[in-house]
Amino acid sequence: MSKISIVIPVFNEAKNLQELIPYLIKNSSSKNIKEIIIVDGGSTDGTQNITKLFTEANLINSEKGRGIQMNLGAKQAKGNILYFLHADSYPPKNFDKHITETLNTNTQAGCFKMSFNSLHWWLKLAGWFTQFSWRICRGGDQSLFVTKTLFETLGGYNEHYKIYEDNHFINCAYKATNFAVIQKQLTTSARRYHTKGICYLQYHYTVIHLKYRLGTSPETLYNYYLKHVSVKN
């Protein structure tokens, strides 16, 4: 029987986890969910204490870095399906059922279509495009489910990428399997857009995407991100 391990990498996400963990429990079935793994990268806001309030959640302490954190969570996961989720993203009701029903011998990875919790026209448009299966429409905010077998075959997340590790892995998954986009809506936060400015941030995200496509090194991508995108928690 398929069992899902939900892996959530976090850094100073106490407020979001306080809402997300109960939401995940309420909107899924224990028969499909093996565990919820919170991989903390050294939070200083009480994230660890919030996690300990929920018996369904397991806390793992890690070196900071999303790729590092997610790989560690995957390594310790007991489920045969890995579901990587951001702390500010809410999958649809019965997400576990949708995932288990979608995965088969031909489809070993996928995501949900997405919307931002914003009424801004550009973010609504950006969310609308995520319904399509084109690789350019993918991103970590949409969450990612993958069989543990395929994840290990692909070598997990490339830890050289301190950013864009989601997209890099998804690119590899597209080449290895029939990547599924479930037509149920996940809702994610637009907090970074509101902090940095929608046009400003979208421009720099586009530059990062183009730099990656042109073969720019992970270190150079990260330095660009630090200069133009990064928001201190």
Tell me what the structure shows.
The protein is α/β, with parallel strands linked by helices and about 230 residues long. It has a single domain, classed as Spore Coat Polysaccharide Biosynthesis Protein SpsA, Chain A. The protein is built from ten helices and eight strands. It has an eight-stranded mixed β-sheet. Helix 1 links the parallel strand 1 and strand 2.
Structural class: alpha/beta
So what's the CATH class?
Alpha Beta
CATH architecture: Alpha-Beta Complex
Strand count, sense and barrel status of the largest sheet are: 8 strands, mixed
- The portion of residues forming beta strands comes to 15-25%
CATH superfamily: Spore Coat Polysaccharide Biosynthesis Protein SpsA, Chain A
Number of helical regions: 10
Multimeric state? single chain
Shape: globular
| Extended strand count | 8
Provide the succession of SSEs: EHEHEHEEHEHEHHEHHH
Which runs of at least 5 residues are low in confidence (pLDDT < 50)? none
Helix content: 40-55%
Number of domains: 1
Lateral arrangement of strands in the main beta sheet: 3-2-1-4-7-6-8-5
Tell me the span between the first and last alpha carbons: 39 Å
Radius of gyration: 17 Å
